[in-house]
Amino acid sequence: MSKLRLDIITIFPEYLEPLRHALLGKAIEQGILSVGIHNLRDWATGNHKSVDAPPLGGGPGMVMKPEVWGPALDDVAAGRAGYDLESAAPHRNDKARHDDVAKIAPRPYEAAEADRSRPLLLVPTPAGAPFTQADARAWSREEHIVIACGRYEGIDQRVFEDAGNRYRVREVSIGDYVLIGGEVAALVIAEAVTRLVPGVLGNTESHEEDSFSDGLLEGPAYTTPRVWRGIAAPEVLTSGDHGKIERWRREQSLLRTKMVRPELFESAELSPEDLFALNARDIELTLDTRADNKAVRRAFRAAGVEVAGIERTAEGHVRVVGRTDTGQGELQVVVEKLEAR
């Protein structure tokens, strides 16, 4: 079983209490995850245990001192335990989990780096590279991650230059905004990474189908009852046709991504069916033709129309309902040919 050691250095240890709860707490209880919290002031000197000083060259705010951070990172790299978190409450471990019942073997993600002999040091900062789901997947293979939570105007840059002798250093940003300190970012990164460690989630597929796992956003989810406050869940989800359900979910993922995060398509791999779902429009056509319904269906399918239904009206016309990404001119040609019969 994979095991992850997570050490977090901060001046506010109590900020990391949420790591004791829910699935992360259970992972601690099961021995999959261990979390050590280190109070940076343990390495500070003087009566006030100061960890910061004015910036060289002047300017607003304070910068965290290298003579405090350096020894802290040295000791953690050397194995300092710190204060180990325990699960907030006992969890039930007597119920078989999905993967155990289905006999699904762990499917760990591929590591980003072959040489992981040194710990991975993560530094949350607005100036860092964006933290992505791909990072979370790769870092779920790590054995030891250390997170350095900065405050004020950040940590003296020399700390990370020096830390490169003992760590693999990565400066990361969880978004284009500024927080008061790195603790909230540490919680985000810790949860995103830990949930992907084999054994933390009982069902491997639950994270393999997450948003961003295939480069796109996840579509909407529904549960019982089928109708709630007059709003019905999509009929396809109760059809029992798993092929149609999977296709519907894929299309909803595509459409949500198109609406909310269209830039994700730049790096996503899209099939011809995906492109059709993105570009198709609903159509409803009425034809005056003697052709039977099968012939009408064949003609429109050949023209790239996904036909949902065909019916004869009281006047003897044919109504076709469906969707297509075919141009209006091409559709008109089909209509004219059918009406000429």
From TrEMBL:
Is Phosphoprotein set as a keyword in this record? no
- GO CC aspect terms: cytosol
The record's annotation in InterPro entries points to: Alpha/beta_knot_MTases, tRNA_m1G_MeTrfase_C_sf, tRNA_m1G_MeTrfase_TrmD, tRNA_m1G_MTases_N, tRNA_MeTrfase_TRMD/TRM10
Predominantly, its location class is: cytoplasm
The UniProt GO MF terms for this protein read: tRNA (guanine(37)-N1)-methyltransferase activity
Give the reactions, separated by semicolons, that this protein catalyses.
guanosine(37) in tRNA + S-adenosyl-L-methionine = N(1)-methylguanosine(37) in tRNA + S-adenosyl-L-homocysteine + H(+)
In terms of Pfam families, this protein maps to: tRNA_m1G_MT
Signal peptide feature range: none
The keyword Cytoplasm appears for this protein: yes
Top-level division of the source organism's lineage: Bacteria
Ligand binding (S-adenosyl-L-methionine): G150, I174, G175, D176, Y177, V178, L179
Under the subunit heading, UniProt states: Homodimer.
Protein name, as recorded: tRNA (guanine-N(1)-)-methyltransferase
List the lineage, top down: Bacteria, Bacillati, Actinomycetota, Actinomycetes, Mycobacteriales
